[in-house]
């Protein structure tokens, strides 16, 4: 035995080979159809557990036999042999279990007036069968009935319970046919009375409800009264397409978009492959700002029809406009891949990048249903940002805006070298772009600082070893190394200073000040540290604390520079120029150390005295050497 479902196998189109199974012609089953002529196809129910497939077939067989025995004067039950032969002609096993779609196709093929399907569950060997009767022609049969067995009873007893419940539906169907006959004769009062009789037998009977709804429409009753009757039919059989079609039409007529969309969604439950209906529901949900539900419907459709262009476009729209950032980038990207127009549209690519950067607040995510939380995102999608900025600059290589986004995206992903290359491209495209130059300078400043740190570790090691000879020999060689490391940063910073506003100049000054203090603190490259600090001071003039610190380290740098002078050679050569330079350095050093005295007052006081002592030498030497 095979358990067949349309989720795994679509029902084949039945051939004319089944002609011997045709029941009385449509002419025989018209308005005055006799009850004995009502043919019904009783199919095995679909089990909740696949392992119960054999049991489901047994239930179907038992119910079929019991209905035939109990209601043979009212219904003509199609035998299992005829049903099996029709299935066999289409390649199905005699005991195939069909879902709603397959059952409908088989019923149409066998030209029956109605068919019966069901959903079967079993709990501790007690069966529960949710029966669904579906009208094929004007049989009046329809509706859903739930029958639960009794513990200790056998399958025959359970089949009798089902047949008894079906008997009430059959009696209600008789009244429904009477309603239809009288409606067609425009005997509306009598038709309504027959519908009322049907409701007494089977409340919310769908056939009687539809008959009554047609009468109300003919009588031009209010839309709300017609809707109420259709809702009654929906309770009787929520899978009946005609009911939801009618409700959709009435809600549309009323101008109720929410109700209209709801009706279309309900109809999709039994018509999941109807993409046109799905798109209509999606559009209504979008217009009423029900974006999550809109995307859910589209995802369900894409599961059945992967790559559907319209579905992807509508999903991209709902995700973006609904600020569902978790699905927006993917949906927009899928549309980009299939739409050549989007591929050459800079605004569309920008839209994807905006979606990649956008985030939902935690309250919104927390309030969303668990099933919909994947549509939201609490943090930026940096991976997507890197991908799409790459696409953007490839498509539009001269776009400053796209290169800026590209640089920022790479930086966020820790790809600093690539980010700096992108910032260089921005600076190249826009000579007046300040931000890119600051980013480049920051990177170059960091690299120079790393070099300064390494030089500091070398001199610290020699100091710790008290190797003063080696230390004295090495220090002069550190100056050109440090200068080379700083040169590129200095060039970019000079360009940035040209563009800087008064508010941003202090930031540039800080980029210069910080690495300069590393040199000064280790007594390395005093010429470079002096040049850097004197360049930084006017830039940080608005920050009193930085000014004091810069002056303190500038004073130190002047002292260390003085210590590098070759005094024996200066004295031997009676170098007046060197004495003039020493005089200037002593003066500037003392002024700087006093301006930064609050950083380390005791040290500043001590150094001030040292500078005073140094300052006495130049006048004496210049007088002795007769310097001009």
Which helices and strands occur, and which strands form pairs?
Blueprint: E1 38-42, E2 46-47, H1 53-71, E3 75-77, H2 80-89, H3 100-109, E4 114-123, E5 126-135, E6 143-148, H4 155-184, H5 188-201, H6 206-218, H7 223-236, H8 241-254, H9 257-270, H10 275-287, H11 291-304, H12 309-321, H13 325-338, H14 340-343, H15 346-357, H16 362-367, H17 382-395, H18 400-412, H19 416-429, H20 434-464, H21 468-499, H22 505-521, H23 526-536, H24 544-563, H25 567-573, H26 576-595, H27 601-624
Parallel strand pairs: 1-3, 1-4, 2-4
Antiparallel strand pairs: 4-5, 5-6
Helix pairs in contact: 1-4, 4-5, 4-6, 5-6, 6-7, 7-8, 8-9, 9-10, 10-11, 10-12, 11-12, 12-13, 13-15, 15-17, 17-18, 18-19, 19-20, 20-21, 20-22, 22-23, 22-24, 23-24, 24-26, 26-27
What does this structure look like?
The protein is mostly helical and 628 residues long. Helices cover 66% and strands 6% of the residues. 42% of the residues are buried. Helix 7 runs antiparallel to helix 8 (241-254) and helix 19 packs across helix 20. It is rod-shaped. Strands 1, 2, 3, 4, 5 and 6 form a six-stranded mixed β-sheet that branches.
